Amino acid sequence: MKKIEMSKVKTFFLGSRTDYGLIFKIILYALLIAIGFVYLYPLLFMFITSMKNGADLLNPMVQWVPTEFYMGNYTKAFRVLDYPTTLLNTILVAVLPSVIQAAVCSLIGYGLSRYRFWGKGIMWVFILATFIIPAQTTVLPQMLTYRNLGLLGNILSLILPATFGQGFKSAIFILIFYQSFSSLPRALEEAARLDGASDLKIFFKVAVPAAISSYIIAVIFSIVWYWNETYLTVVFLEGGIQTLPMQLSKFVQAYENLYPAGTVNIFDRLNEAVKLAGTFLNILPLLVMYFILQKWFVESIERTGITGE
Length: 309
Description:
The chain is mostly helical. The chain has two domains: 2-74; 80-303, Orthogonal Bundle (MetI-like fold), CATH 1.10.3720.10. It contains 16 helices and no strands. It has helices at residues 2-14, 22-50, 54-58, 72-80, 83-114, 120-132, 135-149, 156-163, 170-182, 186-194, 199-210, 212-228, 231-237, 244-249, 251-258, 272-303. Helix 5 crosses helix 9 (170-182) and helix 12 (212-228) runs antiparallel to helix 16. It is flat, with a radius of gyration of 26 Å.
């Protein structure tokens, strides 16, 4: 009896083949909580600080719990960023090229995975070169080309590269689709050809539905990269279209133009809370997008690692 009880106690704490055990679970959850805190701490600090009024900012005793949830910082940041117009511009700049890029990269990935042709290895070298070579190296010839074509300051300067598979980090998405289509069983395509389906119909009816997870990953990551990109968008758009990150980069100047230092009291002057409110408004649409799509995003991440026959 004692041996059985000792065995149960040992299994409870140390685990067995079917159970991890209490000690392992405690270590695992403690590690996950610590990692989660590291990632969430900046976001929590940003949000809480953005909700503080001027008195709370000056009071060293107020740290994590403000005396009131002050929305005035968001009102000022909303006005400084010209939020509705800038948000629509940012969505246009981020979403439209991302959708086009995902569609084009899927075609390229499918062609590379399913067809054999001369120069395929050279094409892979060029594709990988676009990822390895820094964008700052090629931005000057790109800018001169777009200027000669009259595309600077126009969203077409972002759409056209995406249309030809040269959008932001397109090589990564081509590799993702290549891996996804390579794992697709060829028996499905052969069965479709026996039924008289053309190559284009096979792509849309067989390959695309099987690669939905890859499309979700490509669109989400592409939107995030287009959204956060400031260097290339400033160069190519030339201020013709203002995005949230671009507007945030000149937040201080815009705030001082709207709220001159000599005409406002000390609490209405630019402070850390207003800056963080503007930063939070900048990332809020991305957070909303992730919370809405997180279920499909996690499933897509898992599915992209599954190989076929």
